[in-house]
Amino acid sequence: MPNPSSPQVAVIGAGLAGIACARTLTRAGASVRVFEKALKVGGRMGSRQTPFGSFDHGAQAFTVRDPRFETALRTVPESIARWSTPAVHVVDPLGRITEAADRSEVRWVGTPAMEALPRAWAAPLADAGALVLGTRVQVVERDAVDSSRWQLQTLGDDGSVRVFAGFDAVLFATPASQAADVLERSRLAPTFVERLRGIEVAPCWTLMLAFPQAATALGPAWNAAFSAHHRVAWVARESSKPGRGPVERWTVHASPAWSQEHAGDDPQRVEAKLRKAFAEVTGIRAEPSHTAVKLWRHAKTLTPLGRPHLWDARLGLGACGDWCLGHRAEHAFVSGLELALAALAR
């Protein structure tokens, strides 16, 4: 049950930024409710489960540069592992290595799948009943009982409309355009809306392929590469990651420009084009037993905010996300952490 004497905070979005924000607030004694339109936490730190094994179809790996991120990761050592097998190469459109492997920075993954990390950090929130999943925030408005506080109008997956009230602060941890949509609909914070509309983010089509019939590893000697192919930006052998199943599986991220150009295309057409590009880059022309595609509409920040968060102490409104600083998982964590600290200092 919320403690009425503690700051009451609503966090909208349960990706890595939202979980980091809520986790920091809770550890400082605030009472937090986290609202997420999906049915699970993690956002692009999510994983797709299939009969052939998991796919990290969003974030492929993460690096650790900020000491605060490193300290937080130490709290969940069982949920992460060093991706030590592959060196990340740069390859031409035919998969030929054009630059020496990047061995200068360690890459980490969630284990047994990427979603394990946000799930581990969100577990105390779930245990406390602070996660409200499958719920989309439609409007933020002044509380009907106490006009110094906020209330949220929400729409559930089942069509139910609910009102959650009594919040001292409302913090958005969603893609910038989604936060702007809610604020515009709520007729709030026009300065925030203007800043949020200035964030440029590219989509990303993701292709997933499984080859359970393969007795040995298929294709190139490398396991992960940035690609110069006009359709493909990244290719990785999922089965090379620690804690994954042995079935040969590959994930392909389309380039930002190609994804933007084909964002409205039929998924079957996208799949066919990306499979052709995958074969050109890797040399793998075997027929997969499983294929799937997903469009991430808010994947790669092109024009970031340039600061860790937005925060208006007078209104008690804020926004965070990887789009504040860039597009890395670490950017999302730092943004959520720093917004929480700003809200606590109010």
From TrEMBL:
One of its GO terms (molecular function) is oxidoreductase activity. Transmembrane segments: none annotated. SUPFAM superfamilies: FAD/NAD(P)-binding domain. Residues 108-300 form the Amine oxidase domain. It comes from the Bacteria. Coiled coil: none annotated. This is FAD-dependent oxidoreductase. It comes from Ramlibacter algicola.
